[in-house]
Batch of 3 targets.
Target 1
Amino acid sequence: PISGNGRYFGGLAIFIKQALKPHISLLVNSQKDFQWMKFDKSYFNFNHDLYLCLAYDPPAQSIYTKNLSTDILQLLEKDILHYKSKGDVLLCGDFNARCGNLLDFVSSDSTDHLPISNDNYPVDFNLNVRNSRDTTVDTRGKELIELCLGNQIHLLNGRTLGDSLGKYTCY
């Protein structure tokens, strides 16, 4: 649809090659702003099944977002907890979040000073710091980083081949 300011907004599109269709399952969703898919580990030669979520989180100040009864990131986190117990999780999409250069991992994480068994706490990966030309941090960006920290999910923007400089993702 077209918004009040004349811009198109929202929506997800998924294209799957016919030959891959038997090995990719579209999963039942709790929300229309994201879609979970399962990639079969045996066909794709993965160690675990891959649960991919394609998401669109509308801008925080949009009327659509203000009329939602539950925050999309909260719904996503609930699903992440469910699917990461079954396999690996990958989130893709547009989160309308500005994370600047906030860390998406716990730096120098260890179990050295925990009063519990070290087996119960998964130590976070000490990754290379992301690069980002966008130094602005907004509320949604902080929330996305909290989701990453709480679930050991890491942003690829600014740290992978093809985007090692952290280019802007929206103009």
Note: The CA atoms of residues 38 and 141 lie 27 Å apart.
Target 2
Amino acid sequence: MGTWTDSARIDSINGRDVILRKQTWIHDRGAEGYYNVVDHKTLEPILSQYVNAGGLYRRMEFSADGKSVQFQFSPQPPGEGFPPGTPLRLSNPMTEGKVALDRPYFDFNTGMFGLLIAGFPLKEGYSARFPVFRSYDPKAEPAWVDFEVKGEEKVAAGPGKSVNAWLVVANSPDTEEVM
């Protein structure tokens, strides 16, 4: 499937402790990248950005009080994006807007995925449901992600090493994805 790199570090922005996370996926059709800034203690989103080699771009900036999000995204490129040698002509401008939110949301679909779930008190049988911002279709109404901890298993952690990890199944009914 290609090469995935993931880095995260704790930093401070305007006196607020944050996690800065950058993920890059290089595959046979190009590359994709996620950049997230979230509150270090609550994992509430501050900024999320996604871009791919096919020309898709999404950026969300969440207000400090969690009551609104400003967004910007490109039109969906045709087919597989822009094959080599194709002139870059976008007829549709970037979409920009601001959405008022009725509650704090999390960002699952624009890069936080499993790191967000790791912030819950995981144990076998634990399950939860949380509201996520629709980065793919900005609206005030949340999408929801449900997950359940199915158990624990050993996973490879480098040459000759293994660690115990939780087996978690996450379901996003809005996007019909299961992870």
Note: The helical segments are 113-117.
Target 3
Amino acid sequence: VLVEKDDAFYVMNDRLIQLRSGRLVLPVARKVGKHEGDRDEGLAMLSADAGATWRLSRGTAGIDAPRGLAEPCVAELSDGRVLMMGRTGRGSLYVAVSADGGETWSKPEATTLESACSSLTLKTLPDGRLIVFYNHATPIKAGAFFPRTPLCYAVSGDGGKTWSPPVIVDDEGV
């Protein structure tokens, strides 16, 4: 059984990656509670047979905070580890790392990327650096989804340990 009857999972767009090993990693969020606004935790659905069968990762990435760790994205680092990044209600994006292909995750840690609990997109650039698109803004209160501007990007050349200053893409919300 892939999931229990009462589990509630969700996946955001364009999140699936294929590791150099061939494993498919689909980051998902699972509701810890049953209602909108409850905490989420990040984990992965994994496939070793090109998507014919799937199973859940053994470990999860969660924080005890408003919203938890939600809408995770993943990227394979140059050393083979997998970085998971997610939105939180703590005022910044958080990251967790897997050294076993997405099977288990380290305790999530805050980044320097200030953000309300709004969506993000993480990708690997052709030169191996990471780029994240997100809303660089101070939340109106703990756990807040707003503000949603400005839309920015930041780049990391060291596997997500440090990030460039945010570059504004759109500050009008259009």
Note: DSSP finds no helices and 13 strands in the chain.
